[in-house]
Sequence to fold (51 residues):
Amino acid sequence: MRTSKEELMKKIETARYKLNTSIEKKEHYEEIYENSVKLDQLIEQYVVAGF
Fold:
């Protein structure tokens, strides 16, 4: 099943918020890195889907 553009955009916005929050809270590097990788993966999905 293909993720709709709106669903993917919502996931990207949520991941971006989570990353920014982890940076602001000065969480451990591993947590920030994991959040960054998740965001990158979602952006990659968006680009590959051709939206």
